[in-house]
């Protein structure tokens, strides 16, 4: 009969049919069961919606009519298992209806408990009502679909949801005051869950087969090895943010994280062969790691946790774990010629990471083993530990900086003596390493530039003062050039510096990955000065006219001189002997001249054909030929300057004209490696080393960085993924995944872009059924997700500027953080430990740390390019996969990818999930089995703070529910 009244195609909700039926059912003191049965029939016939019925029931407020209430509770209990939606209109009102229903149940329960509180007993009818209410509440809480809709409703209507919490507070107070024991033992827990529904209450199938941290981590050491190689100048907060990201991904406790960081430093340091790496890694381990641990502890400490006074408990626990690794500690003791634990802890005790009791305890545990090892080492080798040099370098660094800041005119001789002393042995490397990890490198460079500026030639100056000035100019120029070669000009210099040295670097210095145009170098030369220099240097015993040409003029105009020499030599108007004479006169004056000349020649070699390289190469070799003993003895501190100039020249030459193989090459580079071997051969060699070790030696990290620059991120990512897919066992795959993820941080943004736009689509499309089934599919999806999360969080945690992660871009990003640190520590003077280090007192104050790093805890709000475009591309590829209704490895990979995004990224992955196409999850639900996709995954996919997100979530939840109901009906 109702069907005759309601027009075809219209629903009963439009005519408030459920209201009409319920009004008829609840006219008297008891509900009419026949009318309620008719309402149930209307639900089954889709005449009315569950949302409309539940919303109407929740409006019933005659709580004195117990029989009506019990009938309604019985009715609700009977329909809860079928609650769903079938139209968009129903979906829009269902969350509000569920919120209202829960509020209604809370009111009934509150009425009962309040009555008991007043009368200290319940009537038989009230007891039955109470039992029915508990039953409905339990059934509701056990229904994951309804809980998910309630979670959406909480976001949609927070005002109405707040009434639920108010009723819950009333119930809790009444239960406490009256000592009333509900008939259902768990109903209090259920009520609390309804009042404080959260996403963790919603079931989600996790793909992580190891919910606890793995027993051995292969990620921390490679990541730190890459970062110390690539970004040694970075602020402490940079490493802290990266370790926090890793801690979230790996579910590490603070103790485990601290242990992994300390162990990573030891593993890296125990396997370096070159002094530059030895000192850098040693300085990082001894100076930077304590600060990283302090900041991590301050950030991860709970607000209620007391501030540690003389030690950090997690650090002590980490050392307990470290002492179990006897082989590593034995190797470190032998390499460093000391009891490494004792050495490290004595310094950490001063920083209140451990106390004296712990130092004695741990040192005693290692004393016997360390003494035996050191005795054996003393019998065979008396070399002193590099650690001793590193620790001792901190005080000289402060002294050098203090001397450089003193009035130049008063300390010229003392300054020259200090700088030349720095060049003796490996002192320069040590000072640079300590300055780098302590954040004082830029201060060192800026003061060296000022020294070089003050040392420019003054026309007419003669005698001893002129000699000291020229030597200071030479020493400071060479030191600055060496630093720029090591770190890159973008890291240590400002963009528009107007000093002579900064202008020379911008216009004339050949750098790694920054080739210079030799024609531009020639164009800035003054023809008159070039002619005069050429004429002077052509004489057997060249003596420059001090009144006309200064040292800085020669440095700028040497490209023009050498170009004339090259052209004349090519045309045979100059003989080889004439060229040798000119070059000898250039290098005889200042070693800086040899460096400036080599820079031009290297740039020139880049711009000519192979057959034209021989002459400039021979000219560079002439600069690498030591001058005669008489000439060397006539200058001050010539040996040290000569050695440094040779090192600089060899690097410039090698950038322009690499010779020999990678393995046999004796030249040590601190930056990029160049080789004539095929890229694939280099990769296979270095990967075999990494695979054999299970970690990344610093030398291997250098080679891989070279391959990244030479072949690009897509090639490198493809080779790394292939190595991962070759593994036969999942354990080996997961190990390889961790190493690859760490290596990707050589340029995480570009590698992630390559993975998502080139490598993964090609593998999934072209190799289905080959090697992308389980577990390869899972591991590949996890690698992509790890890289996305890291690229997403790059530079967002500590307010870094939005630049790519590479050595040539990082230095400028540190200024903001250094400025913040200086505000906390005071004036940032050179006598302090570091500009980016907190003082002992302020470090342990959680408020300072929280304000400084508050952005680390915030969810990044938006994506940058190229990450956003890459994710949009991979999602479009996924959308093409799920157009079919047949389940395939491709579609299962899509499910794994999305599920792992949610599982690993949690709230911080929101900007990525916003890019999900509207129909992707809807289509995926139609293909996937509902046992794989649960309401917890769907609810986490969308940002429920916004209306579009709530609509999408409810739509997908209802589709999931209908598929589930259909499967259940088929089984029946």
Automatic annotation (TrEMBL):
Origin: domain of life: Eukaryota
One GO BP annotation of this record: positive regulation of transcription initiation by RNA polymerase II
GO-annotated molecular function: transcription coregulator activity
Cellular compartments per GO CC: mediator complex
Main location class: nucleus
UniProt keyword annotation of Nucleotidyltransferase present: no
Subcellular localization(s) per the UniProt record: Nucleus
Keywords, ordered alphabetically: Activator, Nucleus, Transcription, Transcription regulation
Key word Protease present: no
Pfam families xrefs: Med24_N (PF11277)
Family: Belongs to the Mediator complex subunit 24 family.
Name under which the protein is recorded: Mediator of RNA polymerase II transcription subunit 24
Gene that encodes it: 106089843
């Amino acid at each position: 009969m109702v069907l005759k009244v309601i027009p075809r195609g219209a629903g009963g909700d439009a005519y408030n049919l459920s209201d009409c039926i319920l009004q008829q059912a609840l006219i008297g003191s008891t509900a009419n069961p026949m009318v309620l049965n008719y309402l149930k029939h209307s639900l089954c016939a889709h005449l009315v919606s569950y949302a409309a019925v539940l919303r109407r029931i929740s409006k019933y407020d005659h709580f004195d009519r117990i029989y009506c209430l019990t009938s309604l509770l019985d009715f609700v209990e009977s329909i809860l298992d079928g609650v769903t939606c079938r139209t968009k209109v129903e979906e829009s009102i269902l969350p509000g209806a569920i919120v209202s229903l829960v509020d209604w149940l809370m009111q009934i329960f509150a009425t009962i408990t309040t009555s008991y509180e007043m009368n200290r007993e319940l009537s038989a009818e009230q007891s039955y009502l109470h039992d029915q209410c508990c039953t409905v509440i339990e059934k509701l809480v056990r229904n994951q679909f309804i809980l998910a809709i309630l979670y959406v409703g909480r976001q949609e209507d927070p005002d109405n949801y707040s009434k639920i919490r108010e009723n819950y507070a009333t119930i809790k107070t009444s239960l406490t005051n009256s000592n009333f024991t509900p008939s259902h033992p768990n109903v209090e827990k259920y009520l609390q869950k309804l009042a404080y529904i959260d996403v963790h209450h919603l079931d989600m199938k996790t793909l992580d087969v190891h919910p606890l941290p793995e027993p051995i981590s292969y990620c921390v050491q490679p990541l730190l090895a890459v970062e110390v190689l690539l970004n040694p100048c970075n602020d402490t907060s940079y490493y802290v943010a990266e370790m926090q990201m890793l801690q979230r991904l790996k579910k590490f406790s603070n103790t485990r994280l601290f242990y992994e960081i300390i162990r990573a430093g030891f593993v890296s340091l125990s396997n370096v062969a070159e002094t530059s790496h030895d000192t850098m890694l040693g300085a990082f381990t001894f100076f930077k790691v304590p600060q990283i641990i302090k900041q991590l502890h301050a950030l991860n400490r709970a607000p209620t946790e007391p501030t540690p006074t003389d030690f950090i408990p997690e650090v002590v626990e980490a050392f307990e774990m470290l002492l179990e690794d006897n082989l590593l500690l034995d190797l470190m003791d032998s390499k460093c010629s000391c009891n490494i634990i004792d050495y490290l802890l004595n310094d950490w005790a001063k920083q209140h990471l451990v106390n004296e009791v712990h130092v004695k305890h741990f040192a005693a545990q290692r004393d016997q083993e360390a003494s035996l090892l050191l005795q054996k080492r003393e019998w065979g080798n008396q070399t002193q530990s590099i650690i001793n040099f590193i620790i001792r370098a901190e005080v000289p660094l402060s002294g050098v900086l203090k001397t450089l800041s003193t009035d130049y005119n008063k300390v010229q001789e003392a300054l020259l003596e200090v700088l030349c002393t720095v060049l003796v042995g490996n002192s320069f490397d040590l000072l640079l390493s300590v300055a780098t990890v302590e954040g004082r490198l830029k201060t060192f460079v800026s003061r060296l530039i000022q020294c070089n500026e003050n040392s420019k030639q003054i026309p007419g100056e003669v005698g001893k003062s002129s000699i000291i000035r020229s030597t200071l100019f030479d020493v400071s120029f060479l030191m600055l050039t060496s630093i720029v070669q090591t770190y890159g000009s973008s890291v240590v210099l400002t963009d528009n510096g107007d000093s002579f040295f900064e202008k020379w670097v911008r216009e004339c210095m050949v750098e790694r990955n920054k080739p210079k145009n030799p024609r531009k170098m020639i164009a800035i030369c003054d023809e008159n000065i070039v002619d005069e220099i050429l004429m002077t240097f052509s004489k057997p015993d060249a003596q420059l006219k001090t009144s006309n040409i200064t040292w800085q003029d020669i440095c700028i105009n040497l490209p023009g001189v050498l170009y004339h020499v090259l052209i004349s030599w090519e045309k045979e108007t100059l003989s080889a002997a004439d060229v040798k004479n000119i070059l000898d006169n250039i290098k005889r004056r200042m070693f800086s001249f040899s460096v400036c000349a080599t820079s031009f020649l290297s740039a020139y070699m880049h711009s000519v054909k192979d057959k034209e390289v021989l002459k400039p190469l021979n000219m560079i070799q002439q600069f690498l030929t030591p001058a005669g003993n008489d000439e060397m003895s006539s200058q001050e501190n010539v040996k040290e300057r000569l050695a440094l100039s040779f090192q600089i020249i060899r690097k410039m030459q090698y950038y322009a004209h690499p010779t020999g193989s990678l393995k046999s090459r004796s030249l040590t580079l601190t930056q990029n490696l160049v080789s004539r071997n095929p890229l694939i051969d280099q990769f296979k060699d270095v990967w075999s080393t990494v695979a054999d070790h299970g970690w990344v030696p610093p030398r291997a990290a250098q080679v891989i960085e070279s391959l990244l620059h030479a072949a690009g991120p897509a090639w490198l990512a493809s080779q790394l993924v292939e190595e991962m897919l070759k593994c036969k066992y999942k354990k080996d795959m997961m190990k390889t995944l961790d190493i690859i993820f760490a290596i990707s941080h050589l340029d995480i943004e570009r590698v992630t872009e390559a993975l998502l736009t080139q490598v993964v689509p090609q593998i999934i499309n072209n190799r289905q059924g080959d090697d992308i089934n389980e577990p390869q599919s899972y591991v590949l999806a996890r690698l992509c997700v790890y890289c996305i999360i890291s690229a997403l969080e790059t530079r967002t945690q500590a307010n870094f500027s939005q630049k790519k992660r590479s050595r040539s871009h990082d230095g400028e990003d540190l200024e903001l953080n250094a400025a913040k640190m200086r505000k906390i520590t005071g004036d940032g003077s050179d006598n302090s430990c570091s500009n980016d280090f907190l003082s002992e007192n302020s470090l342990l104050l959680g408020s300072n740390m929280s304000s400084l790093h508050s952005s680390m805890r915030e969810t990044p709000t938006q994506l940058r390019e190229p990450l956003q475009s890459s994710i949009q591309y991979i999602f479009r590829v996924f959308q093409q996969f799920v157009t079919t209704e047949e389940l395939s490895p491709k579609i299962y990979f899509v499910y794994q990818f999305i599920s792992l995004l949610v599982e690993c990224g949690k709230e911080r992955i929101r900007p990525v999930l916003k890019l999900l196409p509207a129909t992707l999850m809807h289509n995926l639900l139609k293909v996937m089995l509902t046992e794989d996709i649960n309401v917890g995954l769907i609810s986490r996919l969308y940002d429920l703070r916004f209306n579009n997100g709530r609509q999408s979530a409810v739509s997908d939840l209802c589709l999931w529910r209908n598929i589930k109901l259909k499967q259940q009906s088929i089984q029946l």
